[in-house]
Amino acid sequence: MTCNFKTDIVIIGAGISGLWLNKILRQSGYSTLLLEKKALGGLQSMRSQGIIHGGTKYTLHGSLSNAANAISSMPERWRACLRGDGEVDLRQVKVLSEHHYMWSRDKLMSKLTSFFASKAIRGKVAAEAGEKRPEAFQHEDFRGNFYALNELVLDMPTLVSQLVDQAEESIYKFDCSQPGCIEVAEDGSIAAVTLQGKNKRVKVTAQRFILTAGEGNESLLHLANLNRPAMQRRPLHMVIVKHNYSQPIYAHCIGAGSKPLITITSHWMDDGQPVWYLGGNLAETGVELDRETQIASAKTLIKEVLPWVDLGQTQWGSFMIHRAEPQQRTMLRPDTAFVHQQHNILTCWPTKLALTPHLADEVMKKLESDQLTPQSTSDYSQLRFLSQPKIATPIWQELLA
Prior knowledge:
Blueprint: E1 2-12, H1 16-27, E2 32-36, E3 51-52, H2 66-71, H3 74-83, E4 95-97, E5 101-104, H4 110-116, E6 125-127, E7 146-149, E8 152-154, H5 156-164, E9 171-173, E10 182-184, E11 190-197, E12 200-211, H6 217-223, E13 231-242, E14 251-254, E15 262-268, E16 274-279, H7 281-285, H8 291-305, E17 315-326, E18 338-342, E19 345-349, H9 356-369, H10 395-400
Parallel strand pairs: 1-2, 1-12, 2-9, 5-14, 12-19
Antiparallel strand pairs: 3-8, 4-8, 5-7, 6-7, 10-11, 11-12, 13-16, 13-17, 14-15, 15-16, 18-19
Protein backbone atom coordinates (compact mmCIF):
# COMPACT_ATOMS: atom_id res chain seq x y z
CA MET A 1 0.00 0.00 0.00
CA THR A 2 1.28 3.46 -0.90
CA CYS A 3 0.49 6.54 1.19
CA ASN A 4 0.64 10.10 -0.12
CA PHE A 5 2.59 12.85 1.63
CA LYS A 6 2.28 16.43 0.47
CA THR A 7 4.60 19.28 1.36
CA ASP A 8 5.58 22.63 -0.14
CA ILE A 9 9.31 22.00 -0.49
CA VAL A 10 11.48 18.87 -0.52
CA ILE A 11 15.17 19.48 0.18
CA ILE A 12 17.64 16.68 -0.56
CA GLY A 13 20.94 16.97 1.29
CA ALA A 14 21.41 18.07 4.91
CA GLY A 15 24.72 19.87 4.81
CA ILE A 16 24.81 23.43 6.12
CA SER A 17 23.10 24.82 2.99
CA GLY A 18 20.22 22.33 3.20
CA LEU A 19 19.78 22.85 6.94
CA TRP A 20 19.92 26.64 6.59
CA LEU A 21 17.39 26.62 3.74
CA ASN A 22 15.10 24.38 5.75
CA LYS A 23 15.15 26.91 8.60
CA ILE A 24 14.55 29.91 6.33
CA LEU A 25 11.70 28.24 4.44
CA ARG A 26 9.94 27.09 7.59
CA GLN A 27 10.28 30.57 9.10
CA SER A 28 8.64 31.89 5.92
CA GLY A 29 5.63 29.63 6.39
CA TYR A 30 6.47 26.82 3.95
CA SER A 31 6.08 23.20 4.94
CA THR A 32 9.27 21.27 4.21
CA LEU A 33 10.81 17.82 4.12
CA LEU A 34 14.60 17.54 4.39
CA LEU A 35 16.09 14.18 3.37
CA GLU A 36 19.68 13.14 4.15
CA LYS A 37 21.45 10.01 2.93
CA LYS A 38 23.93 9.64 5.79
CA ALA A 39 24.56 12.14 8.61
CA LEU A 40 23.69 15.76 9.29
CA GLY A 41 26.45 18.05 8.13
CA GLY A 42 27.25 15.78 5.22
CA LEU A 43 30.72 15.16 3.86
CA GLN A 44 31.64 18.69 2.86
CA SER A 45 30.13 20.88 5.58
CA MET A 46 31.50 18.93 8.53
CA ARG A 47 34.90 18.71 6.87
CA SER A 48 35.22 22.43 6.34
CA GLN A 49 37.49 24.40 8.66
CA GLY A 50 34.56 26.49 9.88
CA ILE A 51 35.99 29.79 8.59
CA ILE A 52 33.46 32.47 7.69
CA HIS A 53 35.58 34.13 5.01
CA GLY A 54 35.29 37.81 4.20
CA GLY A 55 37.29 37.49 0.98
CA THR A 56 40.65 38.76 2.22
CA LYS A 57 42.57 35.71 1.04
CA TYR A 58 41.31 36.43 -2.48
CA THR A 59 43.13 39.79 -2.46
CA LEU A 60 46.64 38.39 -2.10
CA HIS A 61 47.49 39.36 -5.68
CA GLY A 62 47.03 43.00 -4.63
CA SER A 63 43.58 43.83 -5.99
CA LEU A 64 39.95 43.15 -5.17
CA SER A 65 38.55 40.16 -7.08
CA ASN A 66 34.92 39.33 -7.86
CA ALA A 67 35.13 36.62 -5.22
CA ALA A 68 36.31 39.12 -2.60
CA ASN A 69 33.49 41.53 -3.42
CA ALA A 70 30.82 38.80 -3.38
CA ILE A 71 31.78 37.42 0.01
CA SER A 72 32.79 40.64 1.79
CA SER A 73 29.43 41.21 3.54
CA MET A 74 29.06 37.64 4.78
CA PRO A 75 30.90 37.83 8.15
CA GLU A 76 28.60 40.61 9.38
CA ARG A 77 25.52 38.62 8.39
CA TRP A 78 26.81 35.62 10.32
CA ARG A 79 27.71 37.82 13.32
CA ALA A 80 24.15 39.17 13.35
CA CYS A 81 22.84 35.60 13.50
CA LEU A 82 25.25 34.77 16.32
CA ARG A 83 23.91 37.77 18.27
CA GLY A 84 20.36 36.54 17.67
CA ASP A 85 19.22 39.40 15.44
CA GLY A 86 19.95 37.87 12.02
CA GLU A 87 17.82 35.75 9.71
CA VAL A 88 18.64 32.55 11.62
CA ASP A 89 19.15 32.35 15.38
CA LEU A 90 22.69 31.01 15.99
CA ARG A 91 23.13 32.16 19.58
CA GLN A 92 23.98 28.64 20.76
CA VAL A 93 26.73 28.12 18.18
CA LYS A 94 30.25 27.98 19.59
CA VAL A 95 32.61 30.59 18.13
CA LEU A 96 36.12 29.15 18.07
CA SER A 97 37.71 32.49 17.23
CA GLU A 98 36.31 36.00 16.77
CA HIS A 99 38.97 36.59 14.12
CA HIS A 100 40.78 34.55 11.55
CA TYR A 101 44.32 35.86 11.21
CA MET A 102 46.99 36.15 8.54
CA TRP A 103 50.73 36.13 9.07
CA SER A 104 53.84 36.21 6.93
CA ARG A 105 57.16 34.53 7.58
CA ASP A 106 58.98 37.66 6.45
CA LYS A 107 58.04 41.29 5.91
CA LEU A 108 55.39 41.54 3.22
CA MET A 109 56.29 43.14 -0.04
CA SER A 110 55.41 46.83 -0.04
CA LYS A 111 52.73 46.52 -2.75
CA LEU A 112 50.65 44.13 -0.69
CA THR A 113 51.22 46.06 2.55
CA SER A 114 50.02 49.24 0.85
CA PHE A 115 46.97 47.45 -0.53
CA PHE A 116 46.00 46.17 2.92
CA ALA A 117 46.15 49.77 4.16
CA SER A 118 44.08 51.11 1.26
CA LYS A 119 40.45 52.26 1.35
CA ALA A 120 39.42 49.21 -0.69
CA ILE A 121 40.29 46.79 2.09
CA ARG A 122 40.13 49.10 5.13
CA GLY A 123 37.98 47.73 7.92
CA LYS A 124 38.55 44.14 6.79
CA VAL A 125 42.22 43.86 7.80
CA ALA A 126 44.00 45.35 10.81
CA ALA A 127 47.71 45.06 11.58
CA GLU A 128 48.10 43.64 15.08
CA ALA A 129 50.87 44.73 17.45
CA GLY A 130 52.68 42.06 19.41
CA GLU A 131 50.67 42.36 22.63
CA LYS A 132 47.34 42.03 20.74
CA ARG A 133 48.29 38.88 18.88
CA PRO A 134 47.23 35.42 20.00
CA GLU A 135 49.80 33.94 22.36
CA ALA A 136 51.18 31.59 19.70
CA PHE A 137 52.44 34.65 17.78
CA GLN A 138 53.87 36.62 20.71
CA HIS A 139 57.10 34.61 20.66
CA GLU A 140 60.33 36.61 20.36
CA ASP A 141 61.37 34.63 17.29
CA PHE A 142 58.38 35.78 15.24
CA ARG A 143 59.62 38.14 12.52
CA GLY A 144 56.79 38.56 10.03
CA ASN A 145 53.74 40.79 9.75
CA PHE A 146 50.51 39.85 11.48
CA TYR A 147 46.94 40.84 10.55
CA ALA A 148 43.53 40.33 12.13
CA LEU A 149 40.87 39.69 9.48
CA ASN A 150 37.21 40.60 9.72
CA GLU A 151 36.39 36.89 9.68
CA LEU A 152 35.46 34.33 12.32
CA VAL A 153 35.74 30.61 12.89
CA LEU A 154 32.78 28.47 14.00
CA ASP A 155 32.49 25.06 15.58
CA MET A 156 30.70 23.01 12.95
CA PRO A 157 28.96 20.41 15.18
CA THR A 158 27.26 23.13 17.24
CA LEU A 159 26.31 24.98 14.04
CA VAL A 160 24.64 21.85 12.67
CA SER A 161 22.90 21.23 15.98
CA GLN A 162 21.53 24.78 16.08
CA LEU A 163 20.20 24.56 12.52
CA VAL A 164 18.44 21.31 13.38
CA ASP A 165 16.87 22.73 16.54
CA GLN A 166 13.06 23.07 16.31
CA ALA A 167 13.09 21.61 12.79
CA GLU A 168 13.57 17.95 13.77
CA GLU A 169 10.08 16.89 12.68
CA SER A 170 10.94 17.78 9.06
CA ILE A 171 14.31 15.94 8.82
CA TYR A 172 14.62 12.23 7.92
CA LYS A 173 17.25 9.77 6.80
CA PHE A 174 16.72 8.38 3.32
CA ASP A 175 18.90 7.69 0.29
CA CYS A 176 17.22 9.43 -2.65
CA SER A 177 19.84 8.13 -5.08
CA GLN A 178 18.25 4.67 -5.02
CA PRO A 179 16.82 3.52 -8.38
CA GLY A 180 13.13 4.26 -8.67
CA CYS A 181 13.09 6.83 -5.88
CA ILE A 182 12.72 9.88 -8.12
CA GLU A 183 9.72 9.86 -10.46
CA VAL A 184 10.10 12.14 -13.48
CA ALA A 185 7.07 13.58 -15.26
CA GLU A 186 6.75 13.85 -19.05
CA ASP A 187 7.68 17.56 -18.99
CA GLY A 188 10.97 16.78 -17.19
CA SER A 189 9.87 17.96 -13.74
CA ILE A 190 9.99 15.75 -10.65
CA ALA A 191 6.54 14.28 -10.13
CA ALA A 192 7.29 12.63 -6.80
CA VAL A 193 9.90 11.09 -4.54
CA THR A 194 9.04 7.65 -3.19
CA LEU A 195 10.24 6.72 0.31
CA GLN A 196 10.26 3.04 1.23
CA GLY A 197 10.80 1.24 4.51
CA LYS A 198 9.58 -1.81 6.36
CA ASN A 199 6.06 -2.51 5.10
CA LYS A 200 5.69 1.16 4.21
CA ARG A 201 5.77 3.15 1.00
CA VAL A 202 5.15 6.90 0.86
CA LYS A 203 4.91 8.98 -2.31
CA VAL A 204 6.00 12.56 -1.63
CA THR A 205 4.81 15.42 -3.84
CA ALA A 206 5.87 19.05 -3.55
CA GLN A 207 5.82 22.39 -5.32
CA ARG A 208 9.62 22.47 -5.51
CA PHE A 209 12.47 19.99 -5.10
CA ILE A 210 15.76 21.58 -3.98
CA LEU A 211 19.04 19.70 -4.37
CA THR A 212 21.64 20.64 -1.75
CA ALA A 213 23.56 17.37 -1.66
CA GLY A 214 26.96 18.76 -2.65
CA GLU A 215 28.80 16.12 -4.66
CA GLY A 216 25.65 14.00 -4.52
CA ASN A 217 23.77 16.52 -6.69
CA GLU A 218 25.35 14.98 -9.77
CA SER A 219 23.78 11.54 -9.29
CA LEU A 220 20.44 13.08 -8.31
CA LEU A 221 20.40 15.12 -11.53
CA HIS A 222 21.13 11.99 -13.55
CA LEU A 223 18.23 10.19 -11.87
CA ALA A 224 16.03 13.12 -12.87
CA ASN A 225 17.33 12.76 -16.47
CA LEU A 226 19.03 16.16 -16.32
CA ASN A 227 22.45 16.93 -17.74
CA ARG A 228 22.54 20.51 -16.47
CA PRO A 229 23.92 22.11 -14.47
CA ALA A 230 27.28 20.37 -14.85
CA MET A 231 29.38 19.90 -11.73
CA GLN A 232 33.10 20.13 -11.12
CA ARG A 233 35.10 18.66 -8.23
CA ARG A 234 37.91 20.59 -6.59
CA PRO A 235 40.10 18.00 -4.88
CA LEU A 236 41.87 18.77 -1.60
CA HIS A 237 44.27 16.64 0.43
CA MET A 238 43.70 17.82 3.99
CA VAL A 239 45.98 17.03 6.94
CA ILE A 240 45.13 16.74 10.63
CA VAL A 241 47.53 16.48 13.57
CA LYS A 242 46.73 15.68 17.20
CA HIS A 243 49.36 17.29 19.45
CA ASN A 244 50.21 18.70 22.89
CA TYR A 245 50.68 22.39 22.04
CA SER A 246 48.29 24.37 24.24
CA GLN A 247 47.84 27.54 22.15
CA PRO A 248 45.14 27.52 19.43
CA ILE A 249 45.89 28.95 15.99
CA TYR A 250 43.36 30.23 13.46
CA ALA A 251 45.37 31.76 10.65
CA HIS A 252 46.64 31.75 7.07
CA CYS A 253 50.39 31.87 6.51
CA ILE A 254 51.19 33.84 3.37
CA GLY A 255 54.27 34.00 1.21
CA ALA A 256 55.00 35.73 -2.07
CA GLY A 257 52.26 33.86 -3.97
CA SER A 258 48.55 34.57 -4.38
CA LYS A 259 47.39 31.72 -2.11
CA PRO A 260 48.02 31.01 1.58
CA LEU A 261 50.87 28.55 2.06
CA ILE A 262 48.89 26.86 4.81
CA THR A 263 45.65 27.53 6.67
CA ILE A 264 45.47 26.30 10.27
CA THR A 265 42.40 25.95 12.47
CA SER A 266 42.34 24.44 15.96
CA HIS A 267 39.83 21.92 17.25
CA TRP A 268 39.61 19.40 20.06
CA MET A 269 39.15 15.65 20.39
CA ASP A 270 36.39 14.38 22.64
CA ASP A 271 39.03 13.83 25.34
CA GLY A 272 40.11 17.47 25.14
CA GLN A 273 43.38 16.95 23.25
CA PRO A 274 44.03 19.70 20.67
CA VAL A 275 44.02 19.08 16.94
CA TRP A 276 45.21 21.24 14.06
CA TYR A 277 43.32 21.02 10.78
CA LEU A 278 45.57 22.02 7.87
CA GLY A 279 44.40 23.36 4.50
CA GLY A 280 45.37 26.15 2.12
CA ASN A 281 47.87 25.61 -0.68
CA LEU A 282 49.18 22.57 1.19
CA ALA A 283 45.86 20.81 0.52
CA GLU A 284 45.57 22.00 -3.09
CA THR A 285 49.08 21.00 -4.17
CA GLY A 286 49.00 17.70 -2.28
CA VAL A 287 46.23 16.03 -4.26
CA GLU A 288 48.67 13.87 -6.24
CA LEU A 289 50.65 12.83 -3.14
CA ASP A 290 50.13 9.69 -1.10
CA ARG A 291 49.33 9.95 2.59
CA GLU A 292 52.91 9.57 3.85
CA THR A 293 54.33 12.14 1.44
CA GLN A 294 51.58 14.67 2.15
CA ILE A 295 52.08 14.34 5.91
CA ALA A 296 55.85 14.73 5.45
CA SER A 297 55.20 17.91 3.45
CA ALA A 298 52.98 19.25 6.24
CA LYS A 299 55.59 18.53 8.90
CA THR A 300 58.28 20.34 6.90
CA LEU A 301 56.04 23.34 6.22
CA ILE A 302 55.03 23.74 9.87
CA LYS A 303 58.68 23.72 10.93
CA GLU A 304 59.40 26.43 8.36
CA VAL A 305 56.52 28.77 9.22
CA LEU A 306 56.28 28.13 12.98
CA PRO A 307 59.86 27.23 13.99
CA TRP A 308 59.32 28.18 17.66
CA VAL A 309 56.33 25.84 18.13
CA ASP A 310 56.88 22.46 19.79
CA LEU A 311 53.87 20.23 19.17
CA GLY A 312 55.15 17.52 21.50
CA GLN A 313 53.91 14.01 20.86
CA THR A 314 51.87 13.95 17.65
CA GLN A 315 49.54 11.72 15.68
CA TRP A 316 48.98 12.54 12.01
CA GLY A 317 46.30 11.76 9.48
CA SER A 318 45.23 12.89 6.03
CA PHE A 319 42.26 12.42 3.74
CA MET A 320 40.94 13.50 0.36
CA ILE A 321 37.84 15.58 -0.09
CA HIS A 322 36.17 16.99 -3.18
CA ARG A 323 34.60 20.43 -3.02
CA ALA A 324 31.59 20.21 -5.31
CA GLU A 325 30.87 23.29 -7.41
CA PRO A 326 29.08 24.30 -10.61
CA GLN A 327 31.35 23.73 -13.58
CA GLN A 328 33.49 26.72 -14.58
CA ARG A 329 35.81 27.38 -17.49
CA THR A 330 39.30 26.01 -16.83
CA MET A 331 38.12 24.82 -13.38
CA LEU A 332 38.12 28.34 -11.94
CA ARG A 333 36.65 28.75 -8.47
CA PRO A 334 33.06 30.15 -8.59
CA ASP A 335 32.68 33.67 -7.19
CA THR A 336 29.21 33.41 -5.67
CA ALA A 337 26.61 30.95 -4.44
CA PHE A 338 24.93 29.07 -7.29
CA VAL A 339 21.25 28.27 -7.84
CA HIS A 340 19.96 26.79 -11.10
CA GLN A 341 16.28 26.18 -11.83
CA GLN A 342 14.85 23.76 -14.35
CA HIS A 343 11.12 22.98 -14.13
CA ASN A 344 10.37 22.46 -10.42
CA ILE A 345 13.97 21.53 -9.56
CA LEU A 346 16.48 23.91 -7.98
CA THR A 347 20.10 22.74 -7.91
CA CYS A 348 22.26 24.54 -5.36
CA TRP A 349 25.91 24.82 -4.42
CA PRO A 350 26.92 27.50 -1.88
CA THR A 351 30.54 27.10 -3.18
CA LYS A 352 31.80 28.39 0.22
CA LEU A 353 30.44 27.97 3.74
CA ALA A 354 30.34 31.74 4.25
CA LEU A 355 28.00 32.17 1.27
CA THR A 356 25.23 30.01 2.73
CA PRO A 357 23.00 33.04 3.56
CA HIS A 358 23.49 34.31 0.01
CA LEU A 359 22.39 30.92 -1.35
CA ALA A 360 19.18 31.16 0.68
CA ASP A 361 18.60 34.66 -0.71
CA GLU A 362 18.84 33.35 -4.27
CA VAL A 363 16.44 30.48 -3.57
CA MET A 364 13.88 32.82 -1.98
CA LYS A 365 14.14 35.19 -4.95
CA LYS A 366 13.26 32.34 -7.31
CA LEU A 367 10.28 31.29 -5.19
CA GLU A 368 9.05 34.88 -5.06
CA SER A 369 9.59 35.32 -8.80
CA ASP A 370 7.46 32.21 -9.40
CA GLN A 371 4.88 33.55 -6.94
CA LEU A 372 5.16 30.33 -4.97
CA THR A 373 3.23 30.55 -1.70
CA PRO A 374 2.81 28.10 1.20
CA GLN A 375 -0.05 25.71 0.45
CA SER A 376 0.46 22.49 2.41
CA THR A 377 0.40 21.40 6.05
CA SER A 378 2.52 18.26 6.24
CA ASP A 379 1.43 15.26 8.31
CA TYR A 380 4.81 14.05 9.51
CA SER A 381 3.24 11.10 11.36
CA GLN A 382 3.24 9.31 8.00
CA LEU A 383 7.06 9.34 8.04
CA ARG A 384 7.67 7.83 11.46
CA PHE A 385 8.90 4.60 9.86
CA LEU A 386 12.02 6.54 8.85
CA SER A 387 14.85 7.30 11.25
CA GLN A 388 16.28 10.74 11.89
CA PRO A 389 19.93 11.18 10.94
CA LYS A 390 22.58 11.90 13.56
CA ILE A 391 25.12 14.70 13.41
CA ALA A 392 28.23 13.67 11.49
CA THR A 393 31.39 12.87 13.48
CA PRO A 394 34.23 15.41 13.03
CA ILE A 395 36.93 14.00 10.79
CA TRP A 396 39.67 14.26 13.44
CA GLN A 397 37.61 12.16 15.83
CA GLU A 398 36.92 9.68 13.08
CA LEU A 399 40.57 9.26 12.02
CA LEU A 400 42.59 9.89 15.19
CA ALA A 401 40.47 8.57 18.06
